[in-house]
Each structure stands twice: as C-alpha cells, then as structure tokens.
Amino acid sequence: MRIVLFGRSGQVATEIARQAEAAGVKLDVIDRAVADLSDPASVAPALAERIAGAEAVINATAWTAVDAAEAEEETARAVNAVAPDEMARLCAKAGLPFLHVSTDYVFDGSGETARDEAAPTAPLSAYGRTKRDGEEAVRAAGGRHAILRTSWVFSAHGANFAKTMLRLGAERARLNVVADQIGGPTPAADIAAALLKMARAMAEGAPGGTFHFAGAPDTSWAGFAREIMARGGRGCEIGEIPTADWPTPAPRPLNSRLDCAAIHAAFGIARPDWRAGLDAVLTDLGETA
Ligand SMILES: NC(=O)C1=CN([C@@H]2O[C@H](COP(=O)(O)OP(=O)(O)OC[C@H]3O[C@@H](n4cnc5c(N)ncnc54)[C@H](OP(=O)(O)O)[C@@H]3O)[C@@H](O)[C@H]2O)C=CC1
Ligand SMILES: Cc1cn([C@H]2C[C@H](O)[C@@H](COP(=O)(O)OP(=O)(O)O[C@H]3O[C@@H](C)C(=O)[C@@H](O)[C@H]3O)O2)c(=O)[nH]c1=O
Known about the structure:
Protein name: dTDP-4-dehydrorhamnose reductase
Keywords: NADP, Oxidoreductase
Largest sheet: 6 strands, parallel
Pfam family, one: RmlD_sub_bind
Bound molecules: NADPH dihydro-nicotinamide-adenine-dinucleotide phosphate, dtdp-4-keto-L-rhamnose
EC number: 1.1.1.133
Structural class: alpha/beta
Radius of gyration: 18 Å
Number of domains: 1
Function: Catalyzes the reduction of dTDP-6-deoxy-L-lyxo-4-hexulose to yield dTDP-L-rhamnose.
C-alpha cells in the first residue's frame, strides 16, 4: 500500500521510514523542504501532488519544544493545529483515512488513575493547547481518522529525555530528576509499528477514533532515568526531586497515565514494555544494552 507521510527526520517519522518496506508500505514523504507547516497554506499543494493512489495519510510532525511554545504559541498552533486541520479536511474530501499523533499533555494531570479516551482535556501548557486544538480540528473535519495519543517518546534519533540522560550520565556523578510526574515512556519504534498497523486496517475499512498508546509499566521521570543509567552502563546516581524544584516555563501534568485498553480491543495493539525498547535504542546508539 502507499502512504503519504508528513515528517522525515522526527523520532516517529524516522521509525516509520525504517519499518515501511518490511510492512509492505511505499512511503511518499512530505518534509519541511516541501511544506513548512508554520505556513499551513503549504499543505494543500504538497498533498495535491501525492494524494492520487494513496491509501492513507499519516502526520508525524509537530512543534514539540514544550517550553519554547510558551513564547511562540501562534507558530506552534500553525504546526500543531492549523496544518493538521488542512490535512484532515483534504483527506476527508479525498475519502482517505488520516492518522494523527497527539499527547498526554492535552490533560491537566490531576488524580492518580489512568485516563481513557473519553476523559476531558484541560491542557496546562501552550504546547498542550495547540495539540488539543489539532485533535479537535481533525475530528471536526468529518473524515475517517485516528488520533493516537502517546507520551514520553524516546528513540535513537532527535532530541529526547533518554538521550539527554545518557549524555548527562556520562558527565555527572549525580543528577536530580522529578519523581512526582508519572507516565509511560514510549519507544518511537512501537508508535511507528502501531500507526502502520492502524493505517492498513483503516485502509481496509476498520473504523478509527481516538486511542491511547503508551509504554508500560508507568513510572516517574526519575524511575525512567534510573533505568536509562543502569541499562546504559552509566554510574550516575539519580536523586528524586518534586516538580516544584525543577521550574520550567511550561507546566507539565503530574499524572500522565493513559488507559490503553481501547487500542488493544480495536486493533490488537498491546502496550509495549519500554525497557525492551530502551535496550533496542541503546543498541541503535552503538551502546551495550
Ligand atoms: N516527543 C515526545 O515526547 C512526544 C511526542 N508526541 C507527538 O508525537 C508526534 C511525533 O513526535 P516526535 O517524533 O517526537 O517529534 P520530533 O520533535 O522528533 O519531530 C518533529 C517533526 O515535525 C517536523 N516539523 C516541526 N516543525 C515543522 C514545520 N514547521 N514544518 C514541517 N515540519 C515540521 C520536524 O521536521 P524537521 O526535522 O525538519 O524539524 C520533525 O520531522 C507529534 O505529534 C508529537 O506531538 C506525543 C507525546 C510525546
Ligand atoms: C533534563 C532533566 C529534566 N528533568 C525533568 C523536567 C521535566 O519535568 C521532565 C521531562 O523533561 P523533558 O523536558 O525532557 O520532557 P518534555 O519535553 O516535557 O517531554 C514531553 O514532550 C512532549 C513533546 C510530549 O508530548 C510529552 O509526552 C513529553 O514527552 O524531566 C529533571 O527533573 N532533571 C533533568 O536533569
């Protein structure tokens, strides 16, 4: 099957490209050089050239700089909400399934239980607001769509918490990391596999919707950091601190637990163990896992 993919060098986009051939998928990639999504008007001409013969469109792009979005919310909104709105409308018009990725940061993080897809959104940050707006635009476009909400993505590519920890862990004997934000670290490779499976199923007629997908088991950033240090062979000790001791421009949700039952019921996709994903990333980076 042929899929149009927005995004080339991001974590999820890179993993989709790595897996496409083995999944029997021919990709037609629209990268920043073809369509700079800070100008959402660039979406229509790029998609028009590639939509004939495609069976699904996946959007793996986003403004993901959470703190920087506080000062640049309008540009973040263009990329995270207005451009996906354009994509979703064009897909609806063409009758193509549109798969879009979203985040735990659409929630306010209150409570201590896992949220399901029906839980109300209440983002705390500019990034979260723009991602929430993107979700709502995709639903409002009225076409067949899937919104995959995931969390704490890591891979061997681009910038992510795991790579930051490996770098700092090689330089420092001790690091303080927040221990009161809880969520599921998610390997980008597993998100890519989920999206490709969902795209195929939807191209064959499966219904879409909004789905949660996060790695298991839930942990804190400190717990994740400790596992990164151990598996990555870093002797760095992790001190546990509360969020209040790590001030950032954008507030983060404390409870990012996602209930992932619906995606399992609809597509047979189970939560991956992020510790196995971490070993694979270490191997990818040329480190011993
Ligand atoms: N990272 C995370 O922890 C999480 C991510 N998500 C969601 O998962 C999805 C994928 O994220 P991830 O792979 O980590 O993202 P990355 O930050 O690794 O990559 C972002 C991608 O978006 C592209 N992009 C950003 N701005 C523009 C622009 N103006 N025009 C064109 N392309 C642009 C980038 O292109 P370029 O390489 O040219 O900059 C890159 O391909 C996103 O929807 C994100 O919101 C959800 C939860 C957690
Ligand atoms: C580097 C570092 C971070 N932290 C804290 C800050 C923050 O609360 C937490 C995670 O830090 P980061 O800034 O790397 O993570 P952040 O950019 O907030 O990650 C988020 O990205 C977006 C795109 C998402 O959609 C989310 O799911 C989530 O993955 O760890 C420490 O406590 N100590 C440290 O040494």
